Amino acid sequence: MTQRREFLAQLGGLVAAGSLDASRLDAMTPAQTPDWDLSWVDRITAAKNRVVYNVNAIADGDAVYSAAVVIDQFHDVYGASAQATCAVLVFRAAGTPLGFNDLIWEKYKVGEEEKIIDPATKVSATRNIFLKAREGASPMAAASSISALQQRGLVCVVCNRATKGWASTIAEKTQQKESDVYAELRANLIPGAYLAPSGIFALVRAQNAGCAYLPGD
Is 156 exposed, middle or buried, given 0-12, 13-18 or 19+ CB atoms closer than 10 A? Predict the structure, then answer.
């Protein structure tokens, strides 16, 4: 709050003096935090065909399957390579658990809490069933898993604000320190996933990088 007041005071002084210009304003803006890996943006801009999904619900993995359709059909129509097509899944709100690995799903009973049934066991999922296809799954199902699609240009981004929210809920239920649960969730994102300040940030940044937007639920 103190920094914000100082910034506004400086801004007011420059306006009054008639000396406000873009270069001065940029210099006064706080630098980008080094904690966020934004290399996924480069992957988007390097692709010709781009789409981002707002995955705010698990919804039986509908967004994952929709991304598979986009990747498949752009390849079929244009003969595009994996590098030429980029689908981005932004896991946020109720869709955040899609970005957590099997350890988190099993330990905190995500499948039971979210009413997700594992097709292999016919009971509540104790693993992230959307990450990898179950043993004996059809070739189509296997090709539509997150892991398989990541090999074909899929980018997964997880909302940090939602991750903190999930950490708070889990900590309350399990009587743990929220900071400990948050650190555990961050350490157990699905392989290859990126953490963004928020899902909204990721959605806007992806669209600024040229992605078409699709709702994911």
Answer: buried
Mean pLDDT score, 183-212: 98
pLDDT digits (tens, 9 = 90+) for 3-49: 444 434 443 443 343 433 433 333 333 444 458 999 999 999 999 99
Q: Kindly state the tokens that stand for 80.
A: 């595009």
Q: What is the full DSSP assignment across 87-121?
A: EEEEE-GGGGGGGB-HHHHHHTTHHHHHT-B-TTT
What is the chain's mean pLDDT, rounded?
Answer: 87
Does 174 lie in the same domain as 131?
yes
Q: Quick one: 89 and 26 in the same domain?
A: no
Of 101, 80, 106, the C-alpha closest to 91 is 101
Integer Rg of the chain from CA: 20
Looking at the structure, do residues 15 and 49 belong to the same domain, yes or no?
no
Question: Could you list the residue range(s) of the whole structural domain that residue 11 is in?
Answer: 1-31
Burial class (CB in 10 A: 0-12, 13-18, 19+), 120: middle
Q: Within this chain, do residues 137 and 176 fall inside the same structural domain, yes or no? A: yes
pLDDT single digits (tens) 64-96: 999 999 999 999 998 877 679 999 999 999 999
Report whether 144 contacts 64 (CB < 8 A).
yes
Q: Is 155 a residue whose pLDDT tops 50?
A: yes
CATH assignment of the domain containing 170: 3.40.1260.10
- Residue 27 sits in the same domain as residue 40: no
Q: Note whether 197 and 100 are same-domain residues.
A: yes
Output the pLDDT for position 135.
Answer: 81
